[in-house]
Structure formats: structure tokens, C-alpha cells
Automatic annotation (TrEMBL), chain A:
Membrane-spanning parts: 12-37, 282-303, 315-339, 391-414, 473-493
InterPro entries per record: MetI-like, MetI-like_sf, Phosphate_PstA
A Pfam match: BPD_transp_1
PANTHER family tied to this protein: PHOSPHATE TRANSPORT SYSTEM PERMEASE PROTEIN PSTA-RELATED
Coiled-coil portions: 85-157
Gene: pstA
Membrane topology: Multi-pass membrane protein
Protein name, entry field: Phosphate transport system permease protein PstA
Lineage: Bacteria, Pseudomonadati, Kiritimatiellota, Kiritimatiellia, Kiritimatiellales
Organism whose genome encodes this protein: Pontiella agarivorans
UniProtKB/TrEMBL annotation, chain B:
Protein name: PstC family ABC transporter permease
Gene3D superfamilies the UniProt entry points to: MetI-like (1.10.3720.10)
Keywords assigned by UniProt, alphabetized: Membrane, Transmembrane, Transmembrane helix, Transport
Residue stretches making up the ABC transmembrane type-1 domain: 85-368
Protein localization: Cell membrane
Keyword Nucleus: no
PANTHER family: PHOSPHATE TRANSPORT SYSTEM PERMEASE, PHOSPHATE TRANSPORT SYSTEM PERMEASE PROTEIN
């Protein structure tokens, strides 16, 4: 090969490697950016008056006097909307009534003519006269029919499109004034967030329809402005008014809702925060740590300080690495079959069973990192302690462990992050989709909601998946933040240790 | 002998016996705790197998491994898991196709090309990639990536082709062109003229090929974003950190002597890496690939959320644009509906699947262990 090509090849090869690194960085960026950006919107967003109302009524938070002032302003802005709707109802009812009255009148006239014609026939009146009367009667009947048709079409407008409109308005603003308070919390309030408000406003303005007329292609979304259906009626200016005054009606204000983490959720996450899930995750993680740390550290001490290399120890090591390779879902099944169905640590799913399962999952990580930490302690420490006459156990407890503690802690913190983020092992052993925050003693026999499981649950099985995107993103953001903060902590600690060991 | 004599100088007989006993007790206690992980492994095998055997006893092996009809809730229920095995294999292959080339190039770059300071920055980035919980990846795959793929799949795929195939093909063109110049030396003695003829021709051919491929991909219509491709890409990214860190360790283990020897013989960096370092550390790289495969097979949340969960074999079997279903997702999804207590076939079939997963990962683990051990021996460490 010629030298130039070899050099070119060398450069290109370096470029390839750099591209690989760049792709990885891009992947990381692509995954983290939407999660952080949209996740932070669960905490900082433009909250509407309805959000403040939820906070006041459901969580006793906020100044009620100032809120009432604002509420009056919004009520004043909303009043014309409701007036227009009422006026339309009254107008159409009136029109219907007049139409029906006219129809009745025509009908009676037709009847009179019919009777006259019949009387003439009986008396043997002129053929011409009878025909004329009958023609008149038919004309009147047709007119009555036309009127009936008109009334019916009016009724149709009043029924379907109007009711759809009222429903859409109710989703935007909450229940109408004077209406009975609905049972479901989600129907008691309007839109709490400005972004959702705009979506709902759009739904009031246009009606969405799927067009499947072309059988070869996929369905096309068609947007029909609702105003077309109400052209010429009293509701025509309604839409313009809504568009112009939505700001005054909803009063958006930038809100910092840090209580998203500490609030319980209302009405399956339509309102409120994610405290039960966060608490459940904390319980599960700490529970796993309580079981895994002693077991892992003791095993590491044994393997490093006491065990003599031989068949037994290499067998132990194979077992530990096998345990590290077991797929997480298999841990979940094992937890179900062993902890719940066989030794029955609790009657149903529980935090205890989940913690035990998770602790098995992270055990190998803790053993390995503790072993590394213990091996990193300079031999001189140990030799000095033994030389001073300390026993082996004494040396381990007073010299080696304290020196290895930062390293062990690093491993522990990393596996905490792992335990907090794992979903598969807790599906069958600990997690439920809804629940109240648990008291500490309830963890022994109660299942809990947990962040990872509820992320899955909220974005696949929730009935209003699109309405609560911000909650899903907020949950993912919180989980990722917890795990990454733990890892950051570990990385910083490791940097400090390596500096100390070097210096 | 000397040890007992030594202690006797300080302690009485009784005290020394007491100490010996307590040491023995302490050691056996430590051993017991350590062997808990061994027990855990045996327990896992035992309890998964215990609940898997009733299924094989009742339904036999043939239907499970060869039938394509999976209707566990039907009457009569049908337990043909072949599509699920195919789906698992397809997704794993896809993940490997993403993770292995990227991971190995990144590892090479990390160990041999980048200066130390840059490495200090890149390594934590990889660790962050490994630390993100799988459910967050699943969420990303389902909520962000799947709609993107569904609406702009063609554009994404064709840019992907340019980004990934482009550099690789460029390298190939250089190598091939150079070989051709060597071959044509007799016909065209001046290498500059030969290069001026050969490189443009090869380059245009490659460009035409790339254009053809990307325009064809551009016109692609993807009916659903939750498909094997989506899952493969995300799983590949998830498996990357494992592949990178293990193969980087292997490359580092090849040692300075090999590199310096190669440079001394006049080889360029690329030649050193391709012809010396990679062959020397091939077994470690293989172990990295195996670990990556295991990570992809054992992953649950991403495949459950974003694979589409359709238990049929794609048409043709390698069509990654169709929804599939994997073993882990089936276990996770169906266990909620199966009867936990009385134990129906539907319950036990999931344990049978878990056993397949477990057995596979055990074998893979052993293989990688053996490979790593052998490579260490070969390198004399």
C-alpha cells in the first residue's frame, strides 16, 4: 500500500472512531434533552386560574381573598360566553316554537279545507271546486311538512353540534355556572395548564374528523371549524369572543410548582403530584440496601481477606457472576415464586418482598465494588496493623474497612441508583398502579406505587394518556434526576478517592 | 507450629483455644454469608424450573418451540412461542448491529486515539448512558422516538444511512482503490494517473449506491413507530456502555509493548490497531459482545413498551419495521393476567420462558468467563 493512502486511511480511521464517540454523545443528548426540557415543565409552567383553584380547594394552598378577586374577574370575562350559549338556546327554542305553531296552523287550515271538500263531495258539488280545494289542501300539507323539516333540522343543530360544543366548552372551563358539582374531580375543574388550555380551545373552535374515504391510504385528519354549523345564528360571534378573551378567562401565570414531588395525586394523576411514587421508590431502594449492604460487604471481606484461592472460591465467584447475569425479569419471577408463593413473607405484593428481590439483583455489584475497594487499600496498612499485633478481624474492622469505606460507598451509591430505576423485579413483587403513601410499618405487608412502574403505567394504561403528558415527563425527569444525582455523587467521590490514593 | 508457639507467649492455653474457636466460628459465619449468593443462584434455578416443569409435562416441548400460534387465553389455549423466540432474536440481532460496530469503534477511539484529558470527559458520559433507568429509555422509545419514526421514518432512516454507511464506505473506497492501483501497476505505471482514474469511478459508484438506498428509504411508509427497529436502536444504545467499557478494558490489556513494537516497525496507528491490537484482544472484545447480547436479551421495559407486542413472525422474518414480541415482554405483560395461585398452564408457560432466558444467559455468562480467562492467560496476566 502506498504511504499516502496509508496516512489517509489512518486519518479516516481516527475520524471513524470520533464519529462513534460523537454518535454516543448525540444519543445521550437526544434522550436527555426532551426528558429534562419537558420534565421541568411539570415543575415550572403557565398555570391558569383553575390550577390555583385546585391548589386552594384540594390542597389548602394559596390566598383565598386574592383568589376570589381573580375568580370574579374571570367570571366576568366568562359571563358573555355563557350568556351567548343561553341566548342561543332560548333563540332556537323560540324559533322552534314559532315553527311548530305555524305548522299546526297550516295543518288545521288543511283540515278545514279537507272537511269542506268532503262536504262538497257529499252534496255533489262541482268537480272543479273540489279539485281546487284538494289542491289547496295538498299545498298546505306540503308547507306544513317543510316547516316540520325545518324544525327538525333546527332541533338537530341544537342537539348534536350544540351539545358537542357545550361539552368542549365544559372541558375548557369546567362545569357551567349553576350546574350541579360533578362527582369526578377531573370534571369539577377546567384546564389547569395554559398549554392544555390552548389545545382545548382548539377543540372548541374546530371539530376533528377522520376521513377514511380513500381506502388505499391511511385515514386523514380533517378539521372542520365549528362556526360553519352555527352560521347565521346567535352563536356566530361566540367563537371570535372566545378566541379574543381566552387570556382573561383563564388568567395564565408562570407557576413554580415544586410541590409536584411532595403532593399526593388526585383523581389518578390528573391533578396533584407524585409523592406516593417517590416515597415508594425510596422505601424500595432503602429496603434493598438494608439487605444487600451487609451481605455484600461481608462477602467481599471474606473473599478478599479470608478465603484461600481454590475450587470453593472460584465456584463462589462463578455463582456471583452468574447472579450478575440473570435477566431482571427473571428476578421478578423468582421473587414471586419464592418470596410470595413459597415462604410467603407477606400475603400479597409488598415492599418487603420487592426489597428482597431487588437486594439479590444488586448484590453482585456491591460485592464486586467492595472487593475492589478493599483490594485498593495499600498493603502497608494491613501489614502495619498485623505487625502491631492486631488480630485479623481487628485489622479488618479498624484499618481496612475505614480505609475502603469511600470506595465501598461509591459502589453502594451506584447500586442504589440501579435499584431505584429497576422496574422488572418489582412488577410482580411490590408495585401497584395507584395507592396512598405508606407508613413505615406498612411496608412489611403492603404494596406501593413506585416511580419506574408508574411511569410505565401512566404512559401505557392510563385512560387520559395525552392529558397527563406533563405528569409522565415529570415522573421520568424525577427518576432520572434521582439516579443521575446518585451517580454524580459516586463519580465525585471516586475522583476524590483516586486523588487521595495518588497523593 | 511456629504460629501456636507465638501465641502461647502472650496467651494461656485456654485463651488461645477460645480464640481459635471464635476465629473458626467467625470464618464459617463469613463463609455462610458469602455463600448466600450461591444459594440465591441455586434457588433461582430451582424455583424457575419448578414452575416451568409442569408446563412441559402438560403441553410438551414440540408446540412450545415450533408452533407459531400463541393464544394463551383461548380455549383450547395455544402455546406456540416460536414468534416470540424469533422476535427476541431479531431485536437482539438489531441491537448487536447497532451496539457492536459503534461500541468497538468508540472503545478503540477511547483507548488509542483520544488524549487522556478528553477520555476523562468521555468516560463519565458513557457511565451516564449506563445509569439511565431502563424505564426512562422505554419512555423515550414510546413517547418520543416512536411518533418520530412513524411520521418521519424515511428521513431518519436515510440520514442514518448517510451517517453510518457513508464513512464506512469511504474507508472501503480508499482501501479498494489502493489495492486496485497496486494491481494496475503494470498497465498504468504512474500511480497518480491511476488514482485519478480509479478513485472518481469508485467514488461515484458508491455515491450512486448511497443515493439509491437513501431515496428508497425516504419513500418508506412505517405504519407503526412501535416496532423492532425502534427497540433495536434503543437497546443498542443501552448495550453500548457495556460493550465499550469491556472492550476498552480488553484493548488496554493488550499492553504498551505490542503497540510500541508495531510503531517501531513503521506501521501507522490504524494499522497497529487493526493488525496488532485488535487481534491480540479479540477474545476480550468477544466477551464484550456477549455481554452486550445478554443485556439486550434480558432487557424488559423497552421491549415491553415499544415493541408493539405482536406475537407473529414478521414478513419476511428480518423485517424490522414490523411490531414483534419478546420473551421478557411476554413474561412481564402476561403474568398480570395469569392465575398466580392455582397455577394454570398460562402461569407455567411464563416460567418456561423465564427458564429459557435464564439458561441462555447462564451459558453465555460461562462462555464469556472462559473466554476472558483464556485471553488473560494468553496475554500472560
Amino acid at each position: 500500500m502506498r504511504l499516502e493512502t496509508r496516512k489517509l486511511l489512518d486519518k479516516a480511521f481516527s475520524g471513524l472512531g470520533l464519529i462513534a464517540i460523537a454518535v454516543m454523545a448525540m444519543a445521550l443528548l437526544a434522550i436527555l434533552t426532551p426528558i429534562i426540557w419537558r420534565g421541568s415543565k411539570a415543575f415550572v409552567f403557565k398555570g391558569t386560574i383553575e390550577h390555583r383553584r385546585v391548589m386552594l380547594e384540594q390542597f389548602d394552598r394559596g390566598n383565598s381573598d386574592r383568589f376570589n378577586e381573580e375568580l370574579n374577574l374571570t367570571a366576568a370575562a366568562r359571563a358573555p360566553v355563557y350568556d351567548m350559549l343561553e341566548a342561543f338556546e332560548a333563540e332556537t327554542a323560540e324559533l322552534e316554537k314559532t315553527l311548530e305553531a305555524q305548522e299546526d296552523e297550516k295543518k288545521t287550515q288543511a283540515k278545514v279545507l279537507k272537511n269542506q271538500a268532503r262536504a262538497l263531495k257529499r252534496e255533489g258539488g262541482s268537480e272543479e271546486e273540489i279539485a281546487r280545494l284538494e289542491a289547496e289542501e295538498d299545498r298546505l300539507k306540503a308547507e306544513a311538512k317543510a316547516l316540520k323539516e325545518q324544525a327538525r333540522s333546527l332541533g338537530e343543530t341544537r342537539e348534536e353540534p350544540y351539545e358537542a360544543l357545550v361539552d368542549a366548552v365544559q372541558e375548557l372551563f369546567g362545569p357551567m355556572p349553576g350546574q350541579k358539582k360533578p362527582v369526578l374531580i377531573r370534571q369539577q375543574y377546567g384546564q389547569t395548564r395554559w398549554d392544555r388550555t390552548l389545545v382545548k380551545l382548539h377543540e372548541v373552535m374546530v371539530e376533528e374528523e377522520w376521513d377514511y374515504s380513500n381506502p388505499d391510504a391511511m385515514g386523514v385528519l380533517v378539521e372542520n371549524p365549528r362556526i360553519e354549523k352555527f352560521r347565521g345564528t346567535g352563536l356566530e360571534p361566540f367563537f371570535q369572543y372566545l378566541e379574543d378573551h381566552i387570556d382573561e378567562m383563564m388568567r395564565p401565570k408562570t407557576t413554580f410548582y415544586w410541590q409536584f414531588i411532595t403532593d399526593t395525586s388526585k383523581d389518578s394523576h390528573i391533578f396533584g403530584g407524585i409523592w406516593p411514587e417517590v416515597l415508594g421508590t425510596i422505601y424500595l431502594t432503602l429496603g434493598a440496601m438494608i439487605f444487600a449492604i451487609p451481605m455484600g460487604v461481608i462477602a467481599a471481606i471474606y473473599l478478599c481477606e479470608y478465603a484461600r484461592e481454590g475450587r470453593t472460591v472460584s465456584f463462589l465467584r462463578i455463582c456471583i457472576s452468574t447472579l450478575a447475569g440473570v435477566p431482571s425479569i427473571v428476578f421478578g419471577l423468582f421473587g414471586l415464586a419464592f418470596f410470595l408463593n413459597t415462604i410467603q413473607v407477606s400475603d400479597s405484593k409488598s415492599v418487603l418482598a420487592g426489597s428482597l428481590t431487588l437486594s439479590l439483583l444488586i448484590l453482585p455489584t456491591i460485592i464486586r465494588s467492595s472487593e475492589e475497594a478493599i483490594l485498593a487499600v495499600p498493603r502497608a496498612y494491613k501489614e502495619a496493623a498485623l505487625g502491631l499485633g492486631a488480630g485479623r478481624w481487628h485489622t479488618v474492622m479498624t484499618v481496612i474497612l475505614p480505609a475502603a469505606l469511600p470506595g465501598i460507598l461509591t459502589g453502594v451509591v451506584i447500586s442504589m441508583g440501579r435499584a431505584a430505576g429497576e422496574t422488572a423485579p418489582i412488577i410482580f413483587t411490590a408495585a401497584v398502579s395507584v395507592g396512598a403513601p405508606l407508613k413505615i410499618w406498612e411496608t412489611l405487608n403492603q404494596p406501593t406505587p413506585a416511580l419506574p412502574w408508574n411511569i410505565y403505567n401512566l404512559c401505557t394504561e392510563h385512560e387520559a394518556v395525552d392529558e397527563i403528558r406533563h405528569v409522565q415527563y415529570g415522573m421520568v425527569f424525577t427518576l432520572v434526576a434521582i439516579v443521575l444525582l446518585l451517580n454524580l455523587f459516586a463519580i465525585l467521590m471516586r475522583a476524590r478517592i483516586s486523588k487521595k490514593l495518588r497523593g | 507450629m511456629s504460629k501456636t508457639a507465638n501465641t502461647n507467649l502472650i496467651m494461656s492455653d485456654a485463651a488461645s483455644r477460645r480464640q481459635r474457636i471464635s476465629t473458626l466460628l467467625g470464618q464459617s459465619f463469613l463463609f455462610l454469608i458469602t455463600s448466600l449468593s450461591t444459594f440465591a443462584v441455586f434457588f433461582i434455578f430451582y424455583f424457575i424450573l419448578k414452575d416451568a416443569i409442569p408446563f412441559f409435562k402438560l403441553e410438551g416441548f414440540t408446540e412450545f418451540f415450533s408452533s407459531t400460534r400463541w393464544y394463551p387465553s383461548g380455549s383450547p389455549a395455544e402455546f406456540g412461542a416460536l414468534p416470540i423466540f424469533v422476535g427476541t432474536g431479531l431485536v437482539t440481532l438489531g441491537a448487536v448491529a447497532v451496539a457492536v460496530p459503534l461500541g468497538i469503534s468508540a472503545a478503540v477511539c477511547l483507548s488509542d486515539l483520544l488524549p487522556f484529558k478528553v477520555r476523562q470527559i468521555v468516560k463519565p458520559v458513557i457511565e451516564v448512558l449506563a445509569a439511565i433507568p431502563s424505564v426512562a429509555y422505554g419512555f423515550f422509545a414510546l413517547v418520543v422516538f416512536a411518533p418520530l419514526l412513524q411520521n418521519h421514518g424515511g428521513i431518519i432512516l436515510s440520514t442514518g444511512v448517510w451517517l453510518v454507511l457513508g464513512p464506512i464506505l469511504a474507508l472501503l473506497v480508499i482501501v479498494l482503490g489502493d489495492l486496485l492501483i497496486d494491481k494496475l501497476r503494470k498497465q498504468i505505471p504512474n500511480p497518480k494517473i491511476a488514482g485519478a482514474i480509479i478513485f472518481p469511478i469508485l467514488g461515484t459508484l458508491t455515491l450512486i449506491f448511497l443515493f439509491q438506498l437513501s431515496t428508497r428509504l425516504l419513500g418508506l411508509e412505517i405504519s407503526s413507530g412501535t416496532n423492532a427497529l425502534n427497540v433495536s436502536i434503543i437497546l443498542g444504545i443501552m448495550a453500548l456502555p457495556t460493550v465499550v467499557s469491556v472492550s476498552e478494558d480488553a484493548l488496554q490489556a493488550a499492553g504498551r509493548e505490542l503497540r510500541e513494537g508495531s510503531y517501531a516497525l513503521g506501521a501507522t496507528r490504524a494499522e497497529t490497531i487493526i493488525k496488532t491490537i485488535i487481534p491480540a484482544s479479540i477474545s476480550g472484545i468477544l466477551a464484550a459482545v456477549i455481554l452486550g447480547v445478554m443485556r439486550a436479551i434480558g432487557e424488559t421495559m423497552v421491549v415491553w413498551m415499544a415493541s408493539g407486542n405482536a406475537s407473529r413472525i414478521p414478513e419476511p422474518w428480518y423485517n424490522v419495521l414490523q411490531p414483534i414480541r419478546t420473551l421478557t415482554a411476554t413474561i412481564a405483560g402476561d403474568m398480570g393476567e395469569a392465575d398466580h395461585v392455582t397455577g394454570s398452564s398460562r402461569f407455567h408457560v411464563l416460567f418456561a420462558m423465564a427458564f429459557c432466558l435464564l439458561a441462555f444467559s447462564f451459558i453465555m455468562n460461562l462462555v464469556s468467563e472462559i473466554i476472558v480467562k483464556r485471553s488473560r492467560k494468553k496475554l500472560g496476566k
